[in-house]
Amino acid sequence: MPVAFGIAARHPSLLTAAQDSFLSGLSVACVVVAALCYAAAGLVALPGRRFRHALPAGTDRSNTVTVA
C-alpha cells in the first residue's frame, strides 16, 4: 500500500483512485466479517441446542419446564 501511494502521490487522480480502492476494500472486508459473525451467532442460537442444567438430587421436577 505505501508503494502504491508513493507512486500515486505525483498524480492527484491516481492518489484519489488509490484511496477510494483502499476504502472500498476495507468496507467490503468489514461487511464480510459482519456477515460471518451473524452466521456464527445464528448457528449458536439454533433450536435444539439448549442445554439442560443439572438439578441437585432430590429436587422436585414437577414444576420444571423441559425445552425440546
Q: How would you characterize this protein structure?
A:
The protein has a domain at 2-44. Helix content is 59%, strand content 0%. It contains two helices and no strands. α1 (2-8) runs antiparallel to α2 (12-44). The longest helix is centred in the middle third of the chain and has 33 residues, at 12-44. It is rod-shaped, with a radius of gyration of 27 Å.
Short key terms for the protein model shown above:
single chain; 68 residues; mainly alpha
Shape: rod-shaped
Question: Which stretches of 5+ consecutive residues score pLDDT under 50?
Answer: none
Number of helices: 2
**Major sheet description:** none
Content-based structural category: mainly alpha
> What is the share of helical residues?
55-70%
Strand portion: under 5%
Chain oligomer state:
single chain
Q: First CA to last CA: what distance?
A: 53 Å
What is the gyration radius calculated from CA atoms?
Answer: 27 Å
Present the secondary structure layout.
Blueprint: H1 2-8, H2 12-44
In short:
With 68 residues, the chain is mainly alpha-helical. The chain contains two helices and no strands.
